Amino acid sequence: QKEVEQDPGPLSVPEGAIVSLNCTYSNSAFQYFMWYRQYSRKGPELLMYTYSSGNKEDGRFTAQVDKSSKYISLFIRDSQPSDSATYLCAMSSYSGGGADGLTFGKGTHLIIQP
Amino acid sequence: DVKVTQSSRYLVKRTGEKVFLECVQDMDHENMFWYRQDPGLGLRLIYFSYDVKMKEKGDIPEGYSVSREKKERFSLILESASTNQTSMYLCASPPVADFYSNQPQHFGDGTRLSIL
Fold this sequence. Notes:
The structure holds 2 protein chains of 2 kinds.
Chain A: E1 4-5, E2 11-14, E3 19-25, E4 32-38, E5 45-51, E6 54-58, E7 61-66, E8 71-76, E9 85-92, E10 103-104, E11 108-113
Parallel strand pairs in A: 2-11
Antiparallel strand pairs in A: 1-3, 3-8, 4-5, 4-9, 6-7, 7-8, 9-10, 9-11
Chain B: E1 4-6, E2 10-13, E3 19-25, E4 32-38, E5 42-49, E6 56-57, E7 64-70, E8 73-78, E9 87-93, E10 106-107, E11 111-115
Parallel strand pairs in B: 2-11
Antiparallel strand pairs in B: 1-3, 3-8, 4-5, 4-9, 5-6, 7-8, 9-10, 9-11
């Protein structure tokens, strides 16, 4: 059964803090893991994309995957007010075409206080 | 600049009406998806298409149908709209980032549909 758990928040932190966002999942077939950012009244925007276990860094963002624990994380360093948004984790068993869609967490609402 | 465009940002319809939501992508991708997004439930997959005239049911297809007559256009149809179909509808293409070509998935900005 597809299931992804994500704390909806809101999570409120001061500007400059390190933010940690997390998801857990139950389907061991998931191999591709994504984080999306969604601003109000906009579609989700892909932030990070990783395969299997390990870390990936892109600027102020770091994604971690621990498949043994079925746990993924997104870290945001030096958080800015512009980072205030809803963050969605998503995962899939497949890479590109022929996939059966993404399974999403419900999203965490993040607020960065100036 | 690649784009997924949904024809309407806001739409208000009445119970029992047949409703069409349109999505167009300019990336020449085979795969297109329709999700709905509801508070507390997140994004849920309704239907997807991996080629022209091909369609597959997602997790919540009941009350919906789709049409893919051309590669760039994927339509979601509410056969007889009901109030429980009031939601944000999001179109996406392709389904996931292509890991080897590092192409990001693209979502439209959504259609907020209200059924009265």
